[in-house]
Amino acid sequence: MGSQWKAGQDFHPPPGWDTGFEYSQGFDPADPQFSDFFDSIFGHGQQGFSQRDFDRQATGFQSRGQDHHAHVYIALEDAFHGATREITLHTPEIDATGRVSTRDRTLSIKIPRGVREGQHIRLAGQGMPGLEGAPNGDLYLEIGFSPHSLYRVDGRDIYLDLPVTPWEAALGAKLKVPTPSGTVNLNIPAGSHTGKKLRLKAKGIPSKPAGDLFVTLRIVLPEAKTEAARKLYQNMEEQLGFNPRAAMGV
How many CA atoms lie within 13 A of 181 on its CB side? Predict the structure, then answer.
């Protein structure tokens, strides 16, 4: 926790720190008590797998394996097109002496088109083994989206900040705009301003109904690096006589 930690100070791990770590039903790594898990890893036995389980196994008791859960992150584009991806999960294991360790296992999963953040994908039989021939538990993967350089996601909707020039905003323009499903043409109304929001219907995450893509305009000024560019700005000042602070009385 670092040299600046003070007694009684809460510990807040970075987002996604538990990605790909399997945990048993009723044992959520988002829970504040997840620190207890490390006690189990390093000497106290795994929660949900007690001495009673060993006793039952020794006496031939049949019991379905526990379900396991894990958080995984996928690319936003996979939700638009669907994909098959390999993921690596960190799986806790317990040996005959009751000691717990972890191992990595790699699975191939099918990501359905239209999957949303927070949705679960069920992998039948990929949870804990059953006792004495009973069925294995299932594995539930909770889907999250990896951070994207262009888009933000909220439910089914997607948000994009679009840089535009002053003349495109002032005069209007028809621009090519990237979307996760491909490039589209977008009409910029004349007289647009920074912060203006335009909606591309049904260009969000595909589902029933499909989400929308919201484009927020951000006017970007070119730098006056040359004498000609500085003169152009001076001509604009003289000819337009524009004062954006007029409403403030200054």
Answer: 19
Q: Which amino acid is at 134?
A: A
Answer for the pair 68, 126: CB distance below 8 angstroms, yes or no. Answer: yes
| Residue ranges of domains in the chain | 23-145, 151-238
Q: Is the pLDDT of residue 199 over 60?
A: yes
Among candidate residues 138, 117, 121, the one with its CA nearest the CA of residue 129: 138
129: left (phi over 0), alpha (psi -120 to 50) or beta: beta
β-bridge pairing 68-74 and 23-24: antiparallel
Which CATH code is given to the segment(s) 23-145? 2.60.260.20
Q: What is the pTM of this model?
A: 0.72
Q: Which fold has domain 151-238?
A: HSP40/DNAj peptide-binding domain (2.60.260)
Give me the pLDDT at residue 35, please.
41
Query: Does residue 193 carry a pLDDT above 80?
Result: yes
pLDDT tens, 101-151? 888 889 999 999 999 999 999 999 888 788 878 898 899 999 999 999 999
Q: In whole angstroms, give the CA distance from residue 174 to residue 247.
A: 31
